[in-house]
Each structure stands twice: as C-alpha cells, then as structure tokens.
Write a structure and sequence with these properties.
homodimer, alpha+beta, Phosphoribosyl-aminoimidazole Synthetase, Chain A, domain 2, six-stranded mixed sheet, four-stranded mixed sheet, 8 helices
C-alpha cells in the first residue's frame, strides 16, 4: 500500500487542464462551477459499477476506468445530448499507484474521445466501486425521451446486442474470444448516433439491462405495444460461435441504442458505425409479440436484475 | 431479503412529485433534465459515504439518509450557493424495505428543509455505500472560493468543531451522550449561512476533514499564512465532558463553515444559528502559527486521512 493521501492522488492522477471555457471552477474547491450554454437544458445521470458485480474481478484497471465512464455517457447518448462534464466518486481498498494510473488512462482515453472534462469527485477507502456522474446539455426540443413511441413506428437497434453477455459467459468458462473482449470491457457510448437521432427518433433508451427489458421501458412510458421480428435481430460471432438468441434478447451490458422512428423517416444517410437494424414495429395494443417464435420462456427474457 | 426489483424500489421509495418548475424531466428516463436559472452558474459536488468508514455500522437508516445528503449540501453551502437538485447512487447488500423506508425518510426530511429535489440515481447490489451528487446554482460574482483570503482577514468558524469526533469517540467507548448524538449523525449543512456570506467572505470551506487541515486548504489556495488564537476556539460540552483540543482542531465530520472576512467587515446582523466565532487572522507569511500554545504535535493535527 502506498502513502498517497487523497489530495496527492487527485492531483497526480486526476487533475488535468481543460480547454472547455464553460468551466468556471474545476477540481480543487468545495464544488465545481460551470456555465450551461444559453438556451440549453442540463442533462444529468449517474451509474455505479461494483467490482465482481458489474465487471469481473480480473478486469484491467484501464478497462474499469473506460467502462465506468462509458455506461454514463451512454445515458446522455440515449437522450440525444452532448456529454460535457463528469465527476468521479472512487471507492477503493487502497491507493495503489499502478492501478490508479491504469484506471485514469482508461477514463481519460474515453473522456478525450468525447470532449468530456473531469471537474470534481471524491476518493474514499472501501470495497472497489465507482460512481460517475455525467452532465450534458441539449436543446430542450431535441431531447429524446422514452415516452414518444407511437403505433406504426419502426423499432431500431444499433450494433449487435448480446455480445457483452456472450463474451462474459465465455470468460467465466475460461474461453473468452480475445478479439471480442473489448465488447464487454470497452463499450462505445453512442453519442454520435444519439445526436444524429435528434428530431428523428420518437423514443430512445440505451440497452444496459437487455433488449427486451429496455424495450419494455419504452412501451410502458409511451403506452404502446410492439412486435419484434426475431429473425432480423443482428447477431455476429466468431468462427462458429455467436451469442445465443436469449443473450441477444436479454443480455445486458451492451450500451447500444434502441430507438423508434416514424414510418417513412429515412436514416439512410447514416453511414457511420454502428450498424442500425430495424427489428420490429410499435403497435397500439399493449404487450410484446413475436417472441413465441423463439421457444423462450418469459423468465428467460427478464434481462438484468439489479436485486 | 425482498423481491423488490430496482424499478419497484425506485418507484416506491424515491419517486416523488416536485413543484420545482426548473425540472424538465425527473426520475424515470436515461437522464434527468433541468433548466439552470438564467445568468447563474451551476455548482456540482459529490461525496461518498462507506458503511463502517464514514458512519458506524450501527447508524440508523434514517441518519444515513440524512447524513449522506448533508455532507453534499455542505459543499454547496461553502460556495455560497443554493442547493437545488440531487442524484442518489445507492449500493446495498439487499433491498430491505424497512431500511429503505428509514433511509428515504431521513434523506427527504433534509431535502425538504432546503427545497432540494431528487431527480435521478442508480441502485446496485454490493457493500453498503452511498454516493450523492448535488447540483446548486449561484450568481458567478457571489461564489465563495477557497482562494480569496488576504493578509489581515479575520478567520471565523461556525458552531463547535470537534463535537462529531468527540461523540464518535464516546460512541465507540459505549457512552455516547444521547442529546449530542445528532451532532455526529445529523449534521446541519450551513446553506443559510453560506448565502449570507456571499459578497462578504473572501474565502470559505466546510470542515469535513478537521479545522486545521481544512484551513490549510484555504491558506494554500490563497498563498497566505495564518495565526490561530487557540483560547478562542468555541468548545461546548455536557456536564464536565467536552471535545478535546485535538478534536476541536483536527476532528472531522463537523460540516461547519470556516471562512475569512476582510478586517472591518461586519457580521453583527447575523443573529441566526449557528454561532460565529473569530478564531484568528490571515498573515502574509506562509504557515500556521499559534499552535505551540497547545502542546500538540503536528501529527495530531493532520485531520481525517482518506487513505
């Protein structure tokens, strides 16, 4: 164990200059202060990752730093917002310089990709757990909520849901496909896609708890139902292996976006990563249909259970 | 253990209506959205409480809910800000309805006192730990930083620092004075005082880590030194017992405000709680003096060590 005090370690690993002129006061006072761009609303979200529960204990410090920021940026992406500032509450058993260096490198690698500045936080001693809070902004009228889906809307998903759960399963069996390991450890928050969907999507959510469970949040919030076309679920593998249908439908930890578009709304000018796939449509009748085809029981599709 | 899922427990214990018309979108989407009042800067701070480290394991759920919000509101108070919104990241071993009811009651009792709305959060399973993030606002020109103290300024402290450490020590000895137990478990964030000090105080900090350690943050940030008048330290007790001088100078967990005022700046129109006491003055010469009187070693005055 090191003799690093809280203030030393904040200074050494987490204090960096930022060119963001919206920051009035950064790390180092009782609170940070920022100017929210005029005419925009402030978006705020927080997510905690607990060691052994949200990532395997063997996960590299770099990947923990990356992922704990990624899951929060993903929430800003699902609102169609711009991610701007983050605070980091880091609870760890000891102030280990090697671990901290790796963690900070992963955190800032992703933060820099999206222009996010770390403006504050707290470090405490205890079982390893990371709570990040991200602040973003958006024009109020461009904000994408969960509640706007309407009958006839097409349901789209980005990327290949189920891969994170599949890679985790392989990892626990001691046979993780190395090239896909990043799908579990370094999710890519879909901020670019989220902004593209502003004033296009009628509803959006990020798939952190599993496609079906998260789709049902949209259905409940919007007071509608849906039919899924199971055959169109995007599934990708390596060699002969790929995620199971259950993993695609109910595996959590993917951080892709699930969203609805009015019939006829074109998105063929989206030529960037990730791929977008239409997987069904919204119905006026409540409930979720099309699942009978799969032979899966409702219990198999519950998605991630927090408790 | 209960069968409460994350979404049930958020709904049951934490979703409440708010009259705050600045809230565009509250609990229940990927992120919350708020309007920051025009012309004001946004203040943001976060603090984590870990069971067994920041509160004794026997602490009542109500007091944990109160205290985990209080320590964050205290940071907004130290900036002279108005506390407005909070997010709650709650990690707990199980979703125990009785504990949750107590925790929520304590949290909202304090939130309601200061007009703070809970607008989002996360619940996860793991060792008990609470990270709260508070958002406040202030006029940029009224913000009180740590860096404004100038030679000749008077140093003031609110309340009776050292009481929390003293009560904790009594508690661990099995003899906590019941009437003072709330000084440890239910700190009162000094938001009213903080706003009063706007455009009066040259620097301020909340005493979470001990008076001397926190004063030194002001001295370093301001590039000045100080002389403390030990005899003037406000100390209060019960019967014949009271905090030791070391507890008054280095005990953490008090959440009183330490601030500096220009010579001649009057504060005799402050007639409210807490009491304010002048305990020294700022010098041009770096370092902290006056401590020789006490017979205490520098090591005794380090304050709370996070690691």
């Amino acid at each position: 164990m090191s003799n690093l005090g809280e203030f030393d370690l904040i200074h050494r690993y987490f204090e960096r200059s930022s060119k963001d002129h919206h920051i009035v006061l950064g790390i180092g006072d009782d609170a940070a202060a920022v100017h929210v761009p005029s005419g925009e609303v402030l978006l705020t979200c927080t997510d905690t990752l607990v060691a052994g529960r949200h990532f395997p204990d063997i996960t590299a410090a770099y990947d923990i730093g990356w992922k704990s920021l990624a899951v929060n940026l993903s929430d800003i992406a699902a609102m169609g917002g711009v991610a701007r500032w983050a605070t980091l509450a880091l609870t760890m058993p000891a102030a280990d310089p090697i671990w901290l260096e790796g963690f900070a490198a992963g955190f800032f690698a992703l933060a820099d990709l999206h222009g996010v500045s770390l403006i504050g936080g707290d470090t405490t001693r205890g079982p390893l757990s990371i709570t990040i809070h991200v602040l973003g902004t958006t024009q109020a009228e461009g904000m994408i909520k969960r509640q706007g889906a309407r009958p006839g809307d097409a349901i789209y998903v980005s990327g290949y849901p189920g891969e994170a759960a599949w890679v985790l399963e392989c990892l626990l069996r001691g046979a993780a496909p190395g090239e896909l390991r990043c799908r579990l450890d370094r999710p890519e928050p879909r901020l670019h896609l989220g902004r593209y969907l502003q004033n296009k999507a009628t509803a959006a959510i990020d798939i952190s708890d599993g496609l079906v469970q998260d789709l049902q949040h949209i259905l409940r919030a919007s007071g509608v139902g849906a039919t899924l076309d199971i055959a169109r679920l995007p599934r990708r593998g390596m060699d002969s292996a790929k995620p199971s249908l259950q993993q695609s439908l109910a595996g959590g930890d993917d951080y892709e976006l699930l969203f609805t578009l009015p019939a006829g709304q074109l998105i063929n000018d989206w030529t960037d990563e990730p791929i977008l796939t239409c997987i069904g449509h919204i119905d006026a009748e409540p409930g979720l249909r099309g699942l009978g085809l799969t032979g899966l029981e409702p219990m198999d599709l519950r998605g991630y259970q927090h408790f």
